[in-house]
Amino acid sequence: MDAAVVLVLSLCCLLLLSLWRQSSERGKLPPGPTPLPVIGNFLQIDVKNVSQCLSNFSKIYGPVFTLYLGMKPTVVLHGYEAVKEALIDHGEEFADRGSFPILEKINKGLGIIFSNGNRWKEIRRFTLTTLRNLGMGKRNLEDRVQEEAQCLVEELRKTNGSPCDPTFILSCAPCNVICSTVFQNRFDYKDQDFLILMEKVNENVRILSSPWMQIYNNFPSLIDYCPGSHRTILKNADYVRSYLLEKIKEHQESLNVANPRDFIDYYLIKLKQTSHNQQSEFTLENLTTTVLDLFGAGTETTSTTLRYALLLLLKHPDVTGNNSNNITDISAA
Questions:
Q1: Same-domain status, 178 and 37
Q2: Per residue in 247-274, is it b (16+ CB within 10 Å) or e — as a string?
Q3: What CA–CA distance (Å, rounded) separates 194 from 116?
Q4: What range defines the domain where residue 310 resides?
Q5: pLDDT tens series, the chain, 333 aa
Q6: Do 62 and 32 fall into the same domain?
Q7: pTM above the 0.90 mark?
């Protein structure tokens, strides 16, 4: 059979399969715009203003509606009341994470952010308890944050009032607080290992926010064989994982069970305590992924909040008093 005929037949089968799946699923799902075969509602979504696009859909289909991102249905909750009803009033039913193929490939269902069920409950409970033991919500962690804030201020002063982009420096500060909690020590802002670590984390966050990742997450089986930025994410994650494994090895060699110093020490002690249990969720691989989650959850989110705070100060210089000129210099870049 001619190759062109085989290709046409394959595409037709794919289209028919897509139409059959969509028609059988749509009757069980909330209403939404009619999807096209294979690509779903991608052409109806304004990628430059997704939030406004979702608001427009909610006016037509209500606060709960369905979009097809490729062949995958996604139920959207729009507005405070809909989100509260799902995540608070029916929190147990909505406790699990949805599928996120690129991160499943990195985390393999381990850690906190993208794990589910009993594994998520155990690791989350242990992590919260350990972070509280290390000062979360207490004065000693507040002192650590204050010390890092002073280092951040000194770094900004080194610009001598000249224009600068504070994005990277603002990322270093929260990352260092996490480092002090996980590794028991902070890094100088010029430390090369620290700079490379920050670069990898920030690059992955940037790529994960790109439209390409939306395409990847909806067609992972096809794009696995294609070049693209998703390969950079996997490469960066491998680098960070290797870095963390070196730190874990150093902690194993110097571990004092009677005097845990940081998060890794507490985890290694728990690992020893549960070593007899074959079903235990506490493994070295899970430790690495959990620490990776702590960096991912605490670094970019906090630095983005700090950047927004600076932006607000720039828009309202009257509240900054005598320091308004210094803040304006930061914005010049």
A1: no
A2: bbeebeeeeeeeebebbbbbbbbbbeee
A3: 31
A4: 117-331
A5: 566 666 667 666 666 665 556 555 666 789 999 888 878 888 888 878 888 999 999 999 999 999 988 778 889 999 999 999 999 998 888 888 777 888 888 888 899 888 888 899 999 999 999 999 888 877 778 888 888 999 988 888 888 878 888 888 888 888 899 888 998 888 888 888 888 988 888 888 888 888 778 777 777 776 677 788 888 999 999 999 999 999 999 999 999 999 999 999 999 999 999 988 888 999 999 999 999 888 888 887 888 898 888 888 888 888 766 554 554 444 444
A6: yes
A7: no
